[in-house]
């Protein structure tokens, strides 16, 4: 599927979207996409997080998010899962905590690298992989290198982009949707 085909399918809400990381950014992103009419698989490696989400509750504190999550569940378009499956679009929204290296704070990219490897193992040509995590320059290239290596697909046959979140706690859903 060329990007034009993906755009047409996006207009028709005919894309399978997976958000990796059901935390402070990933969960609201998944809910916002569900509200926009898409079916979204919310993936997390933390089985406890998935258990909580499957019970109809959320594990983070954010105004109006519990109600929005319940509404998303009622539509049947948001599925919490700990099994990563093939999708058209993957959104990587995993933590990038800081750690000290040589006395200077640097982003710890281990979660981005791990998520990229998992996606790479099931990546198909023409898939779109969006890195939503806040990361330093050149991280999208690192992600793309990992995707190419793990999938065996040349980088010009899939799409990889960085679209960082820019939201304030307490207003995340509002800022994602407006």
Automatic annotation (TrEMBL):
GO terms for biological process: polysaccharide biosynthetic process. GO terms for molecular function: NAD binding; oxidoreductase activity, acting on the CH-CH group of donors, NAD or NADP as acceptor; oxidoreductase activity, acting on the CH-OH group of donors, NAD or NADP as acceptor. SUPFAM superfamilies: NAD(P)-binding Rossmann-fold domains. Residues 16-177 form the UDP-glucose/GDP-mannose dehydrogenase N-terminal domain. Pfam families: UDPG_MGDP_dh_N. Belongs to the UDP-glucose/GDP-mannose dehydrogenase family. This is UDP-N-acetyl-D-mannosamine dehydrogenase.
